[in-house]
UniProtKB/TrEMBL annotation:
<keyword id="KW-0030">Aminoacyl-tRNA synthetase</keyword>
<dbReference type="InterPro" id="IPR045864">
    <property type="entry name" value="aa-tRNA-synth_II/BPL/LPL"/>
</dbReference>
<dbReference type="InterPro" id="IPR004516">
    <property type="entry name" value="HisRS/HisZ"/>
</dbReference>
<dbReference type="Pfam" id="PF13393">
    <property type="entry name" value="tRNA-synt_His"/>
</dbReference>
<keyword id="KW-0067">ATP-binding</keyword>
<keyword id="KW-0963">Cytoplasm</keyword>
<feature type="domain" description="Aminoacyl-transfer RNA synthetases class-II family profile">
    <location>
        <begin position="16"/>
        <end position="369"/>
    </location>
</feature>
<dbReference type="InterPro" id="IPR015807">
    <property type="entry name" value="His-tRNA-ligase"/>
</dbReference>
<protein>
    <recommendedName>
        <fullName>Histidine--tRNA ligase</fullName>
        <ecNumber>6.1.1.21</ecNumber>
    </recommendedName>
</protein>
<dbReference type="InterPro" id="IPR033656">
    <property type="entry name" value="HisRS_anticodon"/>
</dbReference>
<dbReference type="InterPro" id="IPR041715">
    <property type="entry name" value="HisRS-like_core"/>
</dbReference>
<keyword id="KW-0436">Ligase</keyword>
<dbReference type="InterPro" id="IPR004154">
    <property type="entry name" value="Anticodon-bd"/>
</dbReference>
<feature type="region of interest" description="Disordered">
    <location>
        <begin position="1"/>
        <end position="25"/>
    </location>
</feature>
<dbReference type="InterPro" id="IPR006195">
    <property type="entry name" value="aa-tRNA-synth_II"/>
</dbReference>
<comment type="similarity">
    <text>Belongs to the class-II aminoacyl-tRNA synthetase family.</text>
</comment>
<dbReference type="InterPro" id="IPR036621">
    <property type="entry name" value="Anticodon-bd_dom_sf"/>
</dbReference>
């Protein structure tokens, strides 16, 4: 007896940190992206697309999880041994684009872009290795008016997506503030110890997720997470840690009061005082434009974990009450973020080019809005299904589908090889509002039978006897062939569709 080996088949599995996207989420995302695009266009930003793959040296090494392989990015070599990487955000590719095309671009240059980004980070709940961002950036504007405008853009965008005031807040700070606090506390400067400085920044950036104790550990010796992984800390002294945590907690009820507290906290530090002055200028612009403390606040705990930020930084937090599928309260947190990065283009040109941008996490924002609204939006009706009663008449059935499509109605002819019962089950799975049937009897009469599947399903719950079912023939009508489009439209109108 021969011993046949089993074929070596791959497992149908997803890599960790990735997900398949359902039709419902794709449609919701498309609607969300269009709403965001309309606001960004209204602010005067222009669209741009850049490739998902860049030369690794063009991206730089700016990711928060810099201790992971490939510095947090997915990298590979091409056939001429050049290192390439999947982009980890849309900002670094923008800097490369501006550096290569600056002579032909208006100054300032205002662009928006949406697309997937990839991060070689440790995946977890709500943290994926591929996700979609929607960015807006102003390149070549030295004034913090550009930063103030992006905060207003974020607020207007969230309201365009259906959020009310009080359901969100734009939190703003300035990297220069924490630099000033660290300077006063005796922490090494960026030039002397950039690694320590960024460890402090990244520790503070995790305040919402880890709490004060977790941040305190990261500012000190380090922290071990639930999985046992250890993250080395900033090695600050207890007095330095206290100074940082006191600063982080120095926010007040109004922007005016917070600015006063910050001025005291960084007094004597030129860098810190410059940060306060920039925030005061932004506050004046928000106030003049009617963006009050109910929409934009100054929060010293906002620092952002990416290394390239150089000035104002901001986050959009959702504060509305939300519950998960088990009814437990959920704190959503940040769904958008950004800040000033005056050094990215300089990496290519040697000349400093001021820039500021905001990035919306599209997938996270969609998930969050569904939590707030109590679930995903209702799925749209599926296509009308033209059943194939007689296989030698496929051309006739295809003509019916075409007639409906030309009238603007979603329609498909059944393309499988099963009988009528299976075709009706197929239509149910597709979410079809109705099916079109024409057998020999209907053809002889010049008629078409249309079954309203939604009404039929409802009536089936009320009819208990098979004989009664056959006699009632619920939600089924026969109409002349020429009335196909109107009859289908009448059924769709019952359910608010066409």
């Amino acid at each position: 007896m021969s011993n046949k080996s089993k074929p070596d088949r791959p497992k149908a599995r997803l890599p960790r940190g990735l997900q398949d996207v359902s039709p419902s989420e794709i449609r919701q995302t498309a609607r969300m992206v269009e709403a965001i695009r309309e606001v960004f266009e209204r602010y005067g930003f222009e669209p741009l697309e850049t490739p998902a793959i860049e030369y690794t040296d063009a991206l730089g090494k700016f990711l928060p999880d810099s201790d992971r392989p490939n510095e947090g990015v997915f990298s590979f070599q091409d056939d001429d041994e050049q290192w390439l990487s999947l982009r980890y955000d849309l900002t670094a590719p923008l800097a490369r684009f501006v550096a290569a095309n600056q002579q032909g671009l208006p100054r300032p240059y205002r662009r928006y872009q949406t697309g997937p980004v990839f991060r070689n980070e440790k995946p977890g709940p709500g943290r994926f290795r591929q996700f979609t961002q929607f960015d807006a950036d102003t390149v070549g504007a030295p004034s913090v008016a550009a930063d103030a405008e992006l905060c207003m853009l974020g607020a207007d965008t969230l309201e365009a997506l259906g959020l009310s005031r009080g359901d969100y807040v734009i939190k703003v700070s300035n990297r220069k503030l924490l630099d000033g606090v660290m300077e006063k506390a005796g922490v090494a400067s960026l030039a002397d110890n950039p690694e320590q400085r960024m460890t402090v920044m990244r520790a503070v950036d995790k305040l919402d997720r880890l709490g004060v104790e977790g941040v305190e550990a990261l500012l000190g010796k380090g922290r071990k997470d639930e999985s046992g992984d250890f993250t080395k800390g900033a090695e600050l002294t207890s007095d330095q840690i206290k100074a940082v945590l006191t600063f982080v907690d120095s926010g007040a009820a109004t922007r005016k009061d917070t600015l006063a507290a910050l001025k005291d906290a960084v007094s004597g530090s030129e860098e810190g005082e410059a940060g306060v002055a920039e925030l005061a200028e932004m506050d004046a612009l928000w106030t003049a434009a009617g963006f009050g403390d109910d929409r934009i606040v100054i929060d010293p705990s906002i620092v952002r974990g990416l290394e390239y930020y150089t000035g104002p930084v901001f986050e959009a937090d959702l504060t509305a009450e939300a519950t998960d599928d088990k009814g437990r309260p959920v704190r959503i947190g940040a769904v958008a973020s950004g800040g000033r990065y005056d050094g990215l283009v300089e990496r290519f040109t040697g000349q400093q080019v001021p820039a500021s941008g905001v990035s919306i996490g599209v997938s996270r924002l969609l998930y969050s809005l569904n939590l707030i609204n109590g679930g995903a939006e209702d799925e749209p009706l599926g296509p009308v299904v033209i059943t194939v009663f007689e296989k030698d008449r496929i051309a006739d059935y295809q003509r019916m589908a075409t007639e409906l499509r030309q009238a603007g109605i979603r329609a498909e002819m059944y393309l499988g090889g099963s009988g009528m019962k299976a075709q009706l089950k197929y239509a149910d799975k597709r979410g079809a509002p109705c099916v079109v049937i024409q057998g020999g009897d209907e053809l002889e009469k010049g008629e078409i039978t249309i079954k309203d599947l939604i009404e039929g399903a409802r009536l089936s719950q009320e009819i208990e006897d098979n004989a009664e079912w056959r006699e009632a023939r619920p939600a089924q009508v026969s109409v002349p062939e020429g009335d196909l489009v109107q009859a289908v439209r009448d059924i769709l109108a019952r359910y608010g569709s066409d």
